Amino acid sequence: MQRKIVRFVEEENLFYRDEKILVAVSGGVDSVVLLDLLCKMEVECGVAHCNFHLRDEESDGDFEFVKNLAKEKGLAFYSIDFDTKKYAAENKISIEMAARDLRYNWFEQVREASEYKYIAVGHHADDVAETVLINLARGTGIHGLSGIKPKLGKIVRPLLPFPRKQLLEYAKKNSIDFREDRTNAETDYVRNKIRHQIMPVLEEINPAIRATMTENVQRFREVEQIYNKVIEQNRLHLVFTRENQLLISIPKLKELLAPVSHLYELLSPYGFHHRDVRKIAESIHGISGKLFSSASHQLLRDREYLILTEISEGNNNEYLIADEEVKLKLPVELKISFLDRTPGFQFPNSTKIACFDANKLQFPLQLRKWKEGDYFHPIGMKGKKKISDFFIDQKFSLQEKENTWLLLSGTKIVWVVGHRMDDRFKITGNTTKIYRLELE
């Protein structure tokens, strides 16, 4: 095992032996064997332990065990206590996810503060097989099939070539004590169900299923590398930026093999899920004007492009309106239409209706809240006026200010929605096409 771990560290370029490594030690066989092997490699290690307080006295026993282990080896020891159940409840996530978030955030804090190069964790070959099965059960793409990466950012996993059985044999042969977590035998958690209920059935079909899964994952990782390279090559011709927007060419997207996969890789970093991406992909074969939103971004299906815009926090949310939009429900409800200018056209006598010279507008239009320094040219007045001064003149309350939206064409304000239009976009004798909005 010592020769194999040295070879694996070198092949995967996990770290150099003269670099300081923070080792996450729970007290279980995997992390204790990992620490022992790294010490035998003469790597300078520190020990980090989390007490999640999920097993009462046993959790405290794990803490004492790891603390004494670090002391015996003369290593720096770092520990922390977490109220994991409270954190999970407050963030509405599972206990497993809560523990994961808490420990990795804290590991990184210790790593930076104490100048460790990497954080070593004890994931092994069984974990890889179980992770792939979990991902398959929940739904995944090529990234989920490639399992647990040997190195991801500052996290390294030197034990990935070894099944748990081999770690137990190593511990027995070298008289290494470790703590057994009784919850590992329970089936309350998804991973334990896979380990105790699914893997035994798969072993009946293929006794070497763990080795087979490891080989599969290695092949999937190579396929993933090819996949990522193709995506990045196509991104260069598919995507460009304009001011604070990301534009994806619809004609070029239609030419690609697997446009859904390309879209997913482009949009998933912005909070769009597979089901969202499929709907977006379907929209490129329909008419323009559809809007899609994630928690942080809005995507507009315009004529030639998919236009991605960040939604700012608080009152600075921004929404786009395509030139073929006929109905808008958020953030305000608007009925929209294009009209031909006729001799009998009557200007509406209502602040809830706005009519503009359509040829003067630059689409997509934008709806947003006001910002300090905003100004417009109120219709019927000469010169410009700050929006803040307009609010004062109209005796707006604080709540009315916060609830007022602005319609913009490019960087110019077209309409203080529901209150006053801008003189620069008004209908004149030369107007042939009218853009009409009605606030419902």
TrEMBL record:
<dbReference type="GO" id="GO:0005737">
    <property type="term" value="C:cytoplasm"/>
</dbReference>
<dbReference type="InterPro" id="IPR012795">
    <property type="entry name" value="tRNA_Ile_lys_synt_N"/>
</dbReference>
<comment type="similarity">
    <text>Belongs to the tRNA(Ile)-lysidine synthase family.</text>
</comment>
<dbReference type="Pfam" id="PF01171">
    <property type="entry name" value="ATP_bind_3"/>
</dbReference>
<keyword id="KW-0819">tRNA processing</keyword>
<feature type="domain" description="Lysidine-tRNA(Ile) synthetase C-terminal">
    <location>
        <begin position="365"/>
        <end position="439"/>
    </location>
</feature>
<dbReference type="GO" id="GO:0006400">
    <property type="term" value="P:tRNA modification"/>
</dbReference>
<dbReference type="InterPro" id="IPR014729">
    <property type="entry name" value="Rossmann-like_a/b/a_fold"/>
</dbReference>
<dbReference type="InterPro" id="IPR011063">
    <property type="entry name" value="TilS/TtcA_N"/>
</dbReference>
<keyword id="KW-0963">Cytoplasm</keyword>
<comment type="function">
    <text>Ligates lysine onto the cytidine present at position 34 of the AUA codon-specific tRNA(Ile) that contains the anticodon CAU, in an ATP-dependent manner. Cytidine is converted to lysidine, thus changing the amino acid specificity of the tRNA from methionine to isoleucine.</text>
</comment>
<dbReference type="GO" id="GO:0032267">
    <property type="term" value="F:tRNA(Ile)-lysidine synthase activity"/>
</dbReference>
<dbReference type="InterPro" id="IPR012094">
    <property type="entry name" value="tRNA_Ile_lys_synt"/>
</dbReference>
<dbReference type="GO" id="GO:0005524">
    <property type="term" value="F:ATP binding"/>
</dbReference>
<keyword id="KW-0436">Ligase</keyword>
<dbReference type="Pfam" id="PF11734">
    <property type="entry name" value="TilS_C"/>
</dbReference>
<keyword id="KW-0067">ATP-binding</keyword>
<feature type="binding site">
    <location>
        <begin position="26"/>
        <end position="31"/>
    </location>
    <ligand>
        <name>ATP</name>
    </ligand>
</feature>
<protein>
    <recommendedName>
        <fullName>tRNA(Ile)-lysidine synthase</fullName>
        <ecNumber>6.3.4.19</ecNumber>
    </recommendedName>
</protein>
<keyword id="KW-0547">Nucleotide-binding</keyword>
<dbReference type="InterPro" id="IPR012796">
    <property type="entry name" value="Lysidine-tRNA-synth_C"/>
</dbReference>
